[in-house]
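One thing: could you explain this record?
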Amino acid sequence: MDSSSYTGLPNKLFQGISSVKSTLTTGHILEKSETTHVPKTDAFHHHMARSVLGIQAPLKLKTELQIANKIGRLPCLPSSRLMADVLRGTNEDISFDDILNNPREFGELQVDPHLAMDKRDRLF
């Protein structure tokens, strides 16, 4: 299925409303803070673990987080990243992303599973 119509304009039925967000130039004041919050807290926790427990603790945690981020579902199904949340200790927190930033809730993105697998495996 082609993502653009015969007029050259994006096909809104195929791409959905969420594709409009990428064309916006300005965001909310706290958007930058929210996007950098997790990396900053991870760096802080790794620094504290290194100063208290030694070099092996942050290296082990970083390795476990990398493995947890690689685990996922099919490319057409977004993962909940539960294992990474458990390792960070944020699995019981209710944040902005849990309530208002869930594109799966509205089903705006429709992807053919076979094309997604081919793209992930770099077959075309």
Observations:
- The chain has a mean pLDDT of 78.
- The two ends are 15 Å apart (CA to CA).
